[in-house]
């Protein structure tokens, strides 16, 4: 299967990158933007074909490595590959 | 000779390169704010090292959109020499003045250290005081200096002799061990077709003073001054 | 907890306790408010102002014992950073600060914001930061969290400093299991200012605008109390992370904007918002200027919605400053900050009430007499017992090793002595183009831009010595920095300190603190080397397990002529090596004893301050005269380790003799006697120096000579430099590469 | 509307971060992973409520700033906010 992990900053955590992108878009003339937040996208090609098992596995990866649970949240999407 | 150093928010080697330029030229460079529309008449444009816009999003990406960059591109296209050092090199690729792109260093770490470079050409305004094949010592200091270009672009760079410097060992051999960041073909710096634009990751301004441990970088500035004065 | 003091509606004894105030302190709060109960917001303000961190309540009585004056001192402790004169109308501004706990919770951001905070302390005084240092202590290498913490802290320090463009030129890294649950991240910054352009925090005058600049305020780092009652906490979202995220790009802009405004004279007082943010900066500025202050919190730039007064006052969002301006200069200032893309807001005014008044949405949220917040904060004379100094060990307690050669290889490749290259290569240590003495030497040397002068900078402490004998260990820490500076040729000027200890409510911990201060004071006095700034970090313990007492010392010294300095490498093949200082073979608390025998015991090496002064002055004068340019001091690991470090730095070997002593070889080679330097000089010069030293009553001997590609000791053992280098360079990268 | 921009490396562009994550996962005992790729996730809160307009606008942002077309691809998802 293929797992798509989205890692995003928790609410309230300052996002300097998002802030800078927001400003840069503004000075490029893109108005009407309220907020920009930047996160990570991690694509994992797994051998596992059982969805439940794959999910459990990727969840563990997130907790252990992919996300920094002190400041980040994650979400997992799975698709057959 | 006159030189202009463009200062972006987050540039931090602007003063350093101005010092080297002054040593070589005998006069101050113009420090030009990124928000200006035009660069005063100059013989050389320098895009300095640093973290323009914090290196957020991609190194050099936001700086490439700065108002001053229009004039940089215009002047570069009309033949005014441009030197992009480190963040300046990243910016040149983002602005499309040089091909390729810079990825995160292969070991994912920021690296600040002296490296050896092999001088691939000495027939440009930047390099005429070097000897071709010379091994010189210049520091690197970057997180994203892993030069990437697709196979076709890389072949063009090689075929047209547009490689300026390559990472090498102290004996001049181009090896994987001597490649500090994973750059394709050990590329540390490249020229445009006409040899008027140079982008390189190492910082020549950092070893242009014997008290700092070497003067190999100074040679680049003296080459420029001799040619452009 | 019970209390007879009045309590506002909704406040419970638990809430008061969660704010870190004991019943007596709470009663004092009510007293200072004329007998009324503090509001919830006021409780928050007292909580942070009377915290250990802001009030130094356990340490103030002891810190007062440190010598803080001298002809070179322009500004001692009490301001954002200390300032010493370096001649020609210039001054060095410096301070060290801890960010221990945040770095344990989130190593990258904790360390990064530590660096950001200390830099603001320095540029808030008008100085441009020119160098950063970092003193780090981690738990045992075997501890499962250590690697992750090392990796995060180092990249966080680099991530912030590299981006700002201030070189990180040195520091320390040690490992010990006592730091397993409490790592230490102490960051130091040194800045340069013109003496007539120094800015202070005092907000003098009445009716002057109080201005907020920098980043917006969020709910970062509000530890405060979790309110039990829903009235105070109406949105019950996910528990908010208290971690502060650093934004070095914004700090760089803030730095440039502040310095641009400081070039003129619009600023009356300026203070960064560090710990306790708006509260402590507002209170401190007003208190120092002897005025009151009134803030309208409606005008605070916020990045989150619905922030309460409590949150705004206690937020520790980074990259912010508070200034008091000369009336009428607001527009000029605003233009500068807006050019740099920063927030600028006039949020208040200085008053003659002597009170800290804040309003929010039409309500008065705090109205507190300033003197109680700042000066009348609790001050404790905590119980302390200074442990008796242990006896000197006997030689049987540190028997000879099977092989001297293997001992050297093992020490040089050990966690505490191996090369820190893996660390400093991740720091931009060359930006600004003035790092003439890069990391790896005794002290970093940074040129004063555009002059012949340089500053030498170092940080040191040997916690195991302090643990064994706090007084002697305190002395040693100061003396080692003094020696490291002297070894480069610098005249030591002054120190900053970062006092990292366990729980001060335990008398033995307070005894470590008291003892260390005594030793430090004695050394500072004897070496004319005052303390001009510092920081205290207490309660570094987990489950009753305290860290080793760690009074980290950051020293700076002045080199008048950059050409006249020394590096810690052997000079040239054939050079004579001279050893200055005593050879008593002191192995108690040595790395030899700890890492080779297995337990460190007994008294640490005694520090003879008179001898330190004499030897250091002698060495410094040789360097200044141009007679010597290769010097290294002996510290951790002893004589042979110092020789090995000099040899590796030059890639030239050395043959050394054991001298004519009754001591066993291993005591000579690995003993950690103090006040010692190794000089590498050409042979002709060496005779002069030997004579000169003897005339001056300096203990000196010819140690050996530089030769070949190996280290060789009289009587047999030989170690190839290549093997030594491998052991020395590989430990840290190997350790960090294994998961 | 809210735009979710996924910026991913083009095929054939080496991905040092993805490779490092792959290795780290391997040494944490997660086997059976074929490949890991790391990309960026950029969330933009827009004032625009017309989907087509919002899409066009975000597309421009991507071309101008958010993605480097030499090495990256992007995709845009929109949702009402
Ligand atoms: N965290 C660090 N950052 C940068 N440099 C460091 C760090 N730790 C150690 N170093 C450098 O490594 C060298 C050796 O450190 P140390 O053993 O403490 O030296 P010494 O014993 O002379 O005080 C010094 O130059 C020091 O500045
Ligand atoms: Mg030390």
Counting helices, strands and paired strands, the structural category of chain A is alpha+beta
Oligomer: heterotetramer
Q: Supply Rg of chain B.
A: 16 Å
Strand order, biggest sheet of chain B? 2-1-3-4-11-10-9-6-7
Largest interface: A-D, 33 and 33 residues
Taking all Cα atoms into account, the compactness measure Rg of chain A is 16 Å
Number of helices of chain A: 2
> What number of structural domains do the residues of chain B give?
1
Major beta sheet summary of chain B: 9 strands, mixed
Order of strands in the sheet with the most strands of chain A?
A: 2-1-3
What is the count of β-strands of chain B? 11
N-to-C span of chain B: 4 Å
CATH class category name of chain A: Alpha Beta
Mean residue pLDDT of chain B: 97
What low-confidence regions of chain A span 5 or more consecutive residues with pLDDT below 50?
Answer: none
Describe it for me?
The complex is a heterotetramer, with 2 copies of chain A (81 residues), 1 copy of chain B (229 residues) and 1 copy of chain C (739 residues). Chain A has helices at residues 16-27, 51-66, and strands at residues 2-9, 33-46, 72-79. Chain A is an alpha+beta fold and 81 residues long. Chain A has one domain: Mth169, Chain: A (2-Layer Sandwich), CATH 3.30.1280.10. Chain B is α/β, with parallel strands linked by helices. Chain B has helices spanning 14-25, 68-77, 87-94, 151-159, 218-228, and strands at residues 3-7, 30-33, 44-47, 82-85, 101-103, 111-119, 135-142, 146-148, 163-168, 187-191, 197-200. Chain B has a 9-stranded mixed sheet with strand order 2-1-3-4-11-10-9-6-7, sandwiched between helices. Chain B has a two-stranded antiparallel sheet with strand order 5-8. The chains are: A alpha+beta (81), B alpha/beta (229), C alpha+beta (739). Chains in contact: A-B, A-C, A-D, B-C, B-D. The interface between A and D is medium-sized, with 33 and 33 residues. Strand 2 (33-46) of chain A pairs antiparallel with strand 2 (33-46) of chain D, so a sheet runs across the interface. Adenosine-5'-diphosphate (ADP) binds at residues 134, 136, 170-173, 420, 423-424, 427, 439-442, 444, 460, 484, 635-636 of chain C.
């Amino acid at each position: 299967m293929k797992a798509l992990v989205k890692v995003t900053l928790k609410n309230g955590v300052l996002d300097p990158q998002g802030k800078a992108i927001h400003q840069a878009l503004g000075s490029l003339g893109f108005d009407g933007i309220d907020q920009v937040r930047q996160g990570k996208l991690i694509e994992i090609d797994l051998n596992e074909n059982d969805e439940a098992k794959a999910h459990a596995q990727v969840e563990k990866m997130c907790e252990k490595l992919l996300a920094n649970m002190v400041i980040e949240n994650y979400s997992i999407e799975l698709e057959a590959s | 000779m006159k030189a202009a150093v463009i200062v972006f928010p987050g540039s931090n080697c602007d003063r350093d390169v101005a010092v080297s330029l002054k040593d070589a030229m005998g006069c101050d460079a113009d420090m030009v704010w990124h928000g200006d529309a035009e660069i005063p008449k100059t013989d050389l444009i320098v895009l300095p090292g640093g973290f323009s816009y914090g290196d957020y999003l991609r190194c050099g990406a936001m700086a490439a959109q700065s108002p001053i960059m229009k004039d940089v591109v215009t002047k570069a296209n009309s033949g005014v020499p441009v030197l992009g050092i480190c963040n300046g090199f990243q910016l040149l690729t983002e602005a499309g003045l040089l091909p390729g792109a810079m990825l995160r260093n292969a070991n994912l770490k920021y690296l600040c250290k002296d490296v050896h470079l092999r001088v691939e050409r000495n027939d440009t305004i930047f390099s005429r005081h070097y000897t071709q094949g010379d091994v010189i010592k210049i520091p690197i200091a970057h997180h994203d200096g892993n030069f990437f270009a697709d196979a076709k672009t890389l072949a063009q760079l090689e075929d047209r002799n547009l490689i300026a410097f390559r990472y090498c060992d102290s004996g001049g051999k181009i090896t994987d061990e001597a490649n500090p960041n994973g750059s394709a073909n050990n590329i540390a710096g490249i020229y445009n077709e006409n040899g008027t634009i140079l982008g390189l990751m190492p910082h020549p301004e950092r070893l242009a003073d014997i008290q700092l441990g070497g003067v190999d970088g100074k040679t680049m500035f003296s080459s420029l001054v001799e040619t452009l004065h | 907890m019970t209390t007879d003091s009045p309590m506002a509606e909704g406040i419970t004894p638990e809430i008061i306790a969660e704010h870190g105030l004991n019943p007596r302190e709470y009663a004092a709060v009510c007293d200072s408010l004329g007998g009324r109960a503090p509001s919830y917001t006021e409780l928050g303000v007292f909580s942070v102002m009377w915290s250990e961190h802001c009030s130094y309540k356990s340490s103030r009585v002891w810190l007062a014992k440190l010598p803080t004056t001298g002809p070179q001192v322009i500004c001692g402790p009490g301001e954002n950073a200390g300032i010493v004169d370096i001649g020609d109308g210039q001054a060095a501004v410096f301070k060290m600060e801890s960010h221990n706990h945040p770095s344990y919770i989130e190593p990258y951001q904790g360390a990064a914001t530590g660096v950001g905070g200390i830099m603001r302390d320095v540029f808030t005084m008008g100085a441009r930061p020119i160098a950063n240092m970092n003193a780090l202590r981690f738990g045992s290498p075997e501890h499962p969290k250590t690697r992750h913490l090392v990796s995060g802290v180092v990249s966080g320090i680099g991530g912030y400093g590299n981006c700002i463009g201030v070189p990180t030129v040195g520091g320390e890294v040690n490992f010990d299991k006592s730091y397993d649950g409490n790592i230490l991240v102490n960051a130091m910054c040194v800045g340069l200012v013109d003496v007539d352009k120094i800015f202070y925090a005092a907000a003098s005058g009445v009716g002057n605008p109080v201005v907020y600049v920098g980043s917006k305020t969020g709910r970062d780092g509000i530890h405060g109390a979790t309110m039990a009652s829903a009235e105070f906490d109406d949105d019950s979202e996910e528990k908010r992370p208290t971690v502060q995220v650093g934004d070095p790009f914004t700090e760089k802009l803030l730095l440039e904007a502040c310095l641009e405004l400081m070039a003129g004279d619009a600023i009356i007082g300026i203070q960064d918002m560090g710990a306790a943010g708006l509260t402590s900066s507002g209170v401190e500025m007003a208190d120092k200027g002897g005025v009151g202050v009134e803030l309208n919190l409606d005008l605070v730039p916020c990045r989150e919605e619905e922030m309460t007064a409590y949150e705004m006052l206690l937020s520790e969002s980074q990259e912010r400053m508070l200034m008091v301006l000369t009336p009428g200069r607001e527009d000029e200032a605003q233009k500068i900050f807006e050019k740099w893309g920063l927030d600028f807001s006039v949020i208040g005014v200085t008053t003659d009430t002597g009170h800290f008044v804040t309003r929010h949405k039409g309500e008065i949220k705090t109205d507190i007499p300033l003197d109680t917040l700042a000066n009348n904060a609790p001050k404790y004379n905590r119980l302390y017992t200074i442990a008796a100094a242990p006896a000197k060990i006997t030689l049987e307690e540190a028997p000879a090793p099977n092989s001297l050669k293997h001992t050297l290889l093992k020490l040089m490749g050990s966690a505490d002595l191996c090369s820190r290259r893996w660390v400093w290569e991740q720091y931009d240590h060359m930006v600004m183009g003035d790092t003439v003495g890069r990391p790896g030497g005794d002290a970093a040397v940074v040129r004063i831009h555009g002059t012949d002068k340089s500053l030498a900078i170092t940080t040191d402490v040997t916690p195991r010595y302090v643990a064994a004998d706090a007084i002697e260990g305190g002395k040693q820490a100061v003396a080692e920095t003094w020696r490291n500076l002297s070894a480069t040729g610098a005249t030591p000027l002054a120190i900053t300190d970062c006092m990292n200890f366990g729980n001060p409510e335990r008398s033995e911990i307070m005894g470590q603190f008291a003892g260390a201060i005594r030793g430090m004071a004695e050394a500072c006095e004897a070496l004319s080397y005052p303390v001009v700034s510092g920081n205290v970090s207490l309660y570094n313990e987990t489950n009753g397990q305290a860290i080793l007492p760690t009074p980290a010392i950051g020293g700076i010294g002045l080199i008048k002529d950059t050409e006249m300095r020394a590096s810690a490498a052997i000079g040239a093949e054939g050079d004579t090596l001279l050893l200055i200082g005593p050879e008593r073979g002191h192995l108690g608390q040595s790395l030899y004893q700890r890492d080779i025998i297995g337990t460190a015991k007994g008294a640490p090496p005694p520090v003879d301050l008179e001898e330190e002064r004499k030897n250091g002055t002698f060495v410094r004068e040789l360097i200044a005269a141009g007679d010597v340019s290769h010097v290294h001091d002996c510290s951790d690991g002893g004589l042979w380790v110092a020789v090995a470090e000099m040899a590796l730095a030059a890639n030239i070997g050395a043959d050394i003799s054991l001298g004519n002593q009754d001591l066993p070889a291993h005591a000579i080679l690995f003993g950690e006697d103090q006040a010692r330097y190794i000089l590498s000089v050409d042979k002709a010069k060496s005779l002069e120096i030997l004579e000169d030293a003897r005339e001056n009553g300096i203990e000196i001997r010819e140690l050996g000579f530089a030769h070949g590609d190996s280290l060789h000791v009289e009587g047999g053992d030989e170690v190839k430099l290549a093997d030594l280098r491998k052991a020395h360079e590989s430990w840290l990268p190997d350790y960090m590469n294994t998961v």
